[in-house]
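--- STAGE predict ---
source: upstream dedup step, 1 unique chain passed
mode: sequence only
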Amino acid sequence: MTKRTKKLYIQQKKRYLKKVVGTLEKPRLAVFRSHKHIYAQLIDDTNGTTLAASSTLAKNLEFKASGTTEAAYLVGQDLAKKAMQKQIKHVVFDRAKKPYLGRVQKLAEGARADGLIF
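--- STAGE serialize ---
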């Protein structure tokens, strides 16, 4: 990535994150997807802390392959359970400008299935 391209990417990211801000009452559900795994966190941006996190690397989740939509659905359910233990029901969904398709969509559906409200 050249310097100019990276600068433009950072400007776009800042512009996007201005609209998606998490608080303690309504944290930001940030999703990161790599080629093999998917990660999700509940972040309080005012204090800069992570309230709960889950990923396909977690030992308690059982699935056949980590890069599938089934695994993403289970990660969403696991994160929702952790959020419910901390009395968090409402979140702001941050998909990091990724399209709402495939694994990102299944993670959101899994979180909604276990009680999170976006």
